Amino acid sequence: MIFKSAKINAFRTWGLLLTMIGMGLMVLGTAGIVFWGQAGKIFAGIGLVLGLITMVGSMAIYFWAGMLSTSAVQVQCPECGKLTKMLGKTDRCMFCHTILTQDPGMATITADELEAQEKSSTQGRSSTSSQPR
């Protein structure tokens, strides 16, 4: 299943997933002492080390996503009108998940066509609103 998400949000989701897995491994490792007493110390040590490694991996992913976020291009989404960040040629809006692109060859509508549509829609509204009732 492919999730509809912006690239930066996808990186943050993986970071959160690794955080939860790391904390779960640490809790399960500590539970080894509760269940098996002194013999569970080895299990606890392994769980704590693996949990620590996944937490450090999570921190690295969050750091990487933050660095990407600082250099990402900010664009205004044509659907929801909110300011969103784009990575690469195509990305999704962080809020409404509309596919966005900066490559004119990949766009379904160019900026000139969009401007012409907006101009014709504002002219149509002004001509109908100026009629007397």
Plain-language structure description:
The structure is a single chain. The protein has 133 residues and is mainly alpha-helical. Helices cover 60% and strands 11% of the residues. The chain contains 3 helices and 4 strands; from the N terminus they run H-H-E-E-E-E-H. It has a two-stranded antiparallel sheet. Helix 1 runs antiparallel to helix 2. The chain starts with 6 loop residues before the first helix and ends with a helix. The C terminus is likely disordered.
List the helices and strands and how they pair.
Layout: H1 7-36, H2 41-71, E1 73-76, E2 83-86, E3 90-92, E4 99-101, H3 111-129
Antiparallel strand pairs: 1-2, 3-4
**Contiguous uncertain segments of 5+ residues:** 129-133
Strand order of the largest sheet: 1-2
Taking all residues together, what is the mean pLDDT? 82
Globally, the shape reads rod-shaped
Number of strands: 4
Structural class: mainly alpha
The largest sheet, given as strand count, sense and whether it forms a barrel, is: 2 strands, antiparallel
